[in-house]
Specification:
By secondary structure, the chain is an alpha+beta fold. It has helices at about 10-15, 175, 185-205, 220-230, 235-245, 260-275, 275-280, 290, and strands spanning about 1-5, 30-35, 35-45, 50-60, 65-70, 75-80, 90-95, 100-110, 115-120, 130, 135-145, 155-165, 170. The protein is built from eight helices and 13 strands.
């Protein structure tokens, strides 16, 4: 596997760093093995040839080797099946490094013949697997990138509890739906959103419609609060939360600024475009029709204006 030149900047930076002497390439060889099955850390080539910092992942069963992927800064063993457990034999991650945490996740089953479920995306450096005996349980990062002018480092990330089912990753729906929001917590969220959105309105005024224009740094408090509610089956409450927190047009009138529907629609589109929405079939969540409809469903005023 050939890796593009742009990837080579990382080793160069390491050599220029005072800590370079303390950093060494990951050793090649066996990362995990059981009987005649193994996961290997391999070398890979770049456009200029061998690079000690470029790694690949391969599975080996008997004498046959199958390449999984390459171009990684390092490979990690996240989980392996214990006696009496359920799921694949092993879960490994190839990390490409960089600020986005891009990686490739492989769940490998060796018997009766090798089978691999793969998921690749940014932020996979945040994947966590439960090490206890039993079925495979992990969290996968659901992230909203660049929303409303947010920088790359300002992505909003919510961890999705995930299980192994029918040979693939699946959302742990009971765990997702276990979260509920009390009246006092919703009141707190209204205040937090109102403060952030009011600051954005202050910066944007005298615009008659708040969305667009974009916020220079995004609105991460608002996005996180709404996303957590959407991903736990409470999109209806999330929509009302945004409505109750949406800014009024300064102190000259008490009319709400325009853009509320456009803001909600754009957020819903970002949620549906996130690869995990489809991969984990999150359209099964309660009130997912509000999200997949892009906010076109009429707002139901189930609580008074605050």
């Amino acid at each position: 596997m050939i890796v593009r030149m742009s990837w080579l900047v990382f080793p160069a930076l390491l050599m220029a760093s005072p800590a370079a002497a303390e950093y060494h390439p990951q050793p090649l060889g066996v990362l995990w093995h059981k009987g005649n099955a193994a996961i290997l850390v391999t070398s890979c080539k770049t456009e200029i040839g061998d690079d000690p910092f470029c790694h690949g992942l391969a599975l080996r069963k008997g004498g046959k080797v199958r390449q999984l992927g390459g171009g990684y800064l390092r490979a990690r063993l996240l989980w392996s099946r214990k006696a009496g457990g359920a799921g694949p034999d092993v879960l490994v991650l190839g990390e490409s490094g960089g600020s986005g945490g891009y990686g490739e996740l492989f769940a490998v089953t060796f018997s009766p013949k090798p089978a691999v479920a793969e998921y690749s995306e940014e932020r996979l450096d945040m994947v966590e697997a439960d090490p206890s005996a039993g079925p495979l349980r992990l969290t996968l990062p659901f992230d909203i990138e660049y929303f409303n002018g947010a920088p790359h480092a300002g992505a909003v990330i919510v961890q999705i509890p995930t299980i192994w089912r029918n040979g693939d990753f699946a959302a742990d729906m009971p765990a997702l739906l276990a979260r509920h929001f009390s009246a006092s917590e919703i009141d707190f969220r209204v205040l937090a959103l109102r403060e952030e959105l009011a600051g954005w309105a202050e910066d944007a005024y005298p615009a008659g419609s708040l969305y667009p224009p974009q916020s220079s740094g995004g609105t991460p408090v608002t996005v996180r609060a709404l996303l957590e509610m959407i991903l736990s089956g409470h999109a209806d409450q999330a929509r009302m939360l945004l409505h109750n927190a949406w800014p009024r047009s300064h102190q000259r009138t008490d009319r709400p600024l325009g853009g509320e529907e456009a803001f909600w629609k754009a957020l819903c589109q970002g949620v549906v475009r996130e690869p995990l929405w489809k991969r984990l079939r999150l359209s099964r969540l309660p009130h997912a029709d509000i999200v997949e409809g892009g906010g076109e469903r009429r707002l139901i005023r189930s609580s008074p204006q605050r």
